[in-house]
Structures are given as C-alpha cells and as structure tokens.
Design goal:
single chain, mainly alpha
C-alpha cells in the first residue's frame, strides 16, 4: 500500500516535471538561451508548489528543501532544450504538458492542504492555486497575459480536480483513488476544453453586445427627436 506521503511526493514531482517541460517549451518558442530556458522550467515547475507551502506553513518549501525538485526541473529543461524537435512532434506540446501539470498539482495541492488540516473549501481553493501558480508566473516572465485569465476552463479544471480530492477526504474514501480520479477529471476537462474551445463567457462578448446596444440606441432617439433634443 502506497503511503500518503509517497503519493503526495509522486504527484508533486510529476507535476514539477511536466510543468517544467511546459515552461521550457515556452522558453524555446520565445528563443531564450539555455540559462533562460532552465530558469523558466524551474519557475513553471515549482512556483505553484512554493506558493502552496508558504500559505500552509510548510517551510522551507519542498521545492527548496528537497534537491529532487531542482533536479527534475533542470532535467526537464535540458531535455526540452536539446531535444525540442521530439517534444514538438506532440500536438500543442505546451498546452498538453501544461494540462498534465495542472492535474498533478491541483491534486497534490489539495491533498497537502487536507493533510495540514485546512477546511474543505480552502483546501480545494489551495489545490487550484497550486495548479495555476506555475503557469501564471511562466507567462508573467514571458510578458504574456497569464493563461488562467484567458484560457479554456483552466482554473475551473484545477478546481474540479482539487474538489474531487477534498470530497474524497470528507467521505473518507481511499486517498489514492480520489487522487487518480481528480487528476483524470482535471486533465480530461482541460484537454476537452482545448480541443473543443469550451470556455466561460469572456469580457469581449459582453462588451461587444453592450457597444452594439449603445450604438443603436442614439439612432432611435434621433429618429424620434429630429432636433436632437429630448
């Protein structure tokens, strides 16, 4: 039987690796040098976990205290930098690895929050924050609008995955099963959103409708008031 600590570590390291690949892939796409790619891989792979650990008081954060997180991040960055052609054969590599990292981190973040005694709602939110943190910092460093603010169900997928873990803990279900189901749901929802363009309503749609209404309203007023006065 796998212990909870071993499961948390496995999901954390798995999330670190795939998020690091997504960060490194984005760096290669922006033509950064080797150092820049490695920095971006570490930040993308570990920022969410560091934020989580600081918020729940698990200090020093695992990404700093455990050499494996740095090693996994640098390995992912080096693989991506030197063999990007192989990774690039995958369909939308950054988005796919980002979705996988999102699933790993959302589950690991929620499980660690539950283990530290946070209430269910905050545990689910912290799991979501763990999932989106690395991607947000990656995009900030690349001077882009963070994916979480504009992508197809990014934060929603993380929240769904984290919520499954929290519900499983409340119902005292096996943590391994809850983690696997939560990760699969998170990845599946994010992947389907990418493929089919599922998204929440965006500001442009609402503002466009409001602008069209404002453009037609004055013309109606002028038609009823030839002199332009009410």
């Amino acid at each position: 039987m796998i212990s909870l600590n071993a499961l948390l570590s496995a999901f954390d390291l798995g999330g670190t690796f795939v998020f690091a690949i997504s960060g490194a892939s984005a760096g290669v796409n922006r033509r950064l040098d080797l150092f820049g790619v490695l920095v971006l891989s570490f930040v993308a792979g570990n920022f969410g976990g560091i934020t989580r650990d600081l918020l729940i008081g698990a200090v020093p954060p695992a990404a700093i205290a455990d050499w494996r997180y740095l090693a996994v991040s640098l390995l992912a960055g080096a693989i991506t930098f030197f063999w990007y052609s192989g990774i690039n054969k995958l369909s939308n590599p950054v988005l796919i690895f980002d979705a996988a990292g999102l699933a790993f981190f959302a589950v690991a973040g929620a499980q660690k929050a539950v283990a530290f005694g946070l209430n269910p709602i905050m545990s689910a939110l912290l799991g979501m924050l763990t999932g989106i943190g690395g991607g947000m910092m990656r995009d900030v460093l690349l001077a882009e609008i963070p994916v979480v603010l504009r992508a197809d169900l990014y934060a929603v997928a993380a929240l769904v995955g984290a919520s499954v873990v929290v519900i499983g803990a409340v119902l005292r279900l096996p943590s391994e099963a809850s983690a696997v189901v939560g990760a699969v749901l998170c990845f599946g929802l994010r992947y389907m959103a990418i493929q089919h363009g599922w998204r929440l309503p965006i500001a442009d749609d609402r503002h466009q409708s409001a602008a069209e209404t404002e453009e037609t309203a004055p013309s109606k007023d002028r038609a009823s008031c030839p002199n332009g006065k009410q």
